[in-house]
Write a structure and sequence with these properties.
single chain, 128 residues, three-stranded antiparallel sheet, two-stranded antiparallel sheet, 3 helices, 25% strand, globular
Length: 128
């Protein structure tokens, strides 16, 4: 994969961060009890949001391609910090009743969304 994804972010006096991509602007912040203004989700919540969004979009794409009527699809993610790292527990729910094989296929696909692939592989940080 040779595609580049770019994001710019800035922070002023407090902990509110303005994030920008080519077409969108959004904010991250810390809760008031940690000195923030709570003007946006915490960075870890944004991370989980990215993963949840990617999983749901990937699952929806596959379901639509196969013409499976899932109805609404929802996901709950819980991130736990362990002594050996981090675990993310996911629960995916489908509004409509699906066959067991369909559910298994969609849950399998959920592990292969682009964000899940990124965090499942080593990441190298470099300074520009």
């Amino acid at each position: 994969m040779n595609d580049s994804i770019k994001l710019s972010a800035s922070i002023n006096h407090d902990f509110t961060v303005e994030n920008r991509t080519s077409a969108h602007v959004w904010f991250a912040d810390e809760p008031i009890e940690f000195g923030g203004k709570d003007e946006g989700p915490k960075p870890t919540e944004l991370f989980l949001s990215s993963l949840a969004s990617c999983i749901l979009i990937t699952v929806r794409m596959v379901a639509q391609r196969k013409e499976w009527n899932t109805g609404n699809i929802s996901i709950d993610l819980t991130m736990n910090y362990l002594e050996t790292g981090v675990e993310i527990i996911k629960k995916i729910s489908f509004e409509n009743q699906l066959e067991e094989a369909q559910v298994k296929r969609l849950l399998d696909v959920s592990n292969r969304c682009p964000v899940a692939k990124i965090i499942s592989n080593p990441i190298e940080f470099k300074f520009a």
